[in-house]
Amino acid sequence: MASVVGPRPCRFKGDMKPDEATLVCKYNKPPFSSTSGERRKVSNRDRSTSDFAATIEEIFSCVVRKEKYPMSQIDIFLEVLQSDGSEFACAVNAATLALTDAGIEMRSLACAATVGMWGPHLFADLCRFEENPRIPQLTMVCLQVVDQAGPLNPNTDNPASQPQVLHTRLTSWLPTTKLNALCAAAIEVTHALSLEFACWLRGRIRSELDIR
To answer: Crossing angle of helices 176-211/87-101, nearest 10°?
Structure first.
């Protein structure tokens, strides 16, 4: 679950920037969120949640037009209600939709996907049982071109139509050929997600205009 508060005055004056907004991400994973049946021990020093929060802050600091909101703070709150795999990718996608719904201006829609490889087979959106050390996994966050309605063409020479890779996470060492296949699959999935996000956004805008 994702929510956005802001832009609003900075909580601490030391965080205030005269020419842009300060982006803060809070990531919470309660003990009951695990689907393995084990209750996690809550700790303020949980490295995984703090790492996720810091990385999401970095990602959206590149995406949000912070110069539009000087001397303000934008908070992203992420609450994991059920952790059943591909957690980081889901968090990024939820944050993208929450920022869009809050009317925060962004350069494009950040889309994330987790893909895995088992033998010659590629699959996306791994569940908890598929996230194991025997399956190489790649999580990628991309900025896709939202007005690109056609199929993805990775061989085009136009840089403007190419996705921008913002972040990658690889769980294990891979030969270059297999890594290229995982990267291509992740980009294809994020492209499909960007089309879905753009369709949702257009529907959201139409509904707001109809209400007015």
So the answer is: 30
Element (H, E) at 2: strand 2-8
Nearest of 11, 4, 15, 47 to residue 29 by alpha carbon: 47
Task: From the options 2.30.30.240, 3.30.230.70, 3.30.565.10, 3.40.190.10, give the CATH code of 1-106.
Answer: 3.30.230.70
pLDDT band at 158 (very low <50, low <70, confident <90, very high): low
Tell whether omega for the bond before 70 is within 30 degrees of 0, i.e. cis.
no
pLDDT in tens, 22-53: 999 999 888 777 665 555 555 555 678 889 99
Say what the pTM is: 0.83
> Is residue 187 within 8 Å of residue 152, measured between CB atoms?
yes
Backbone angles phi, psi at 133, to 5 degrees: -60, -20
Tokens at residue 66, please? 């912070």
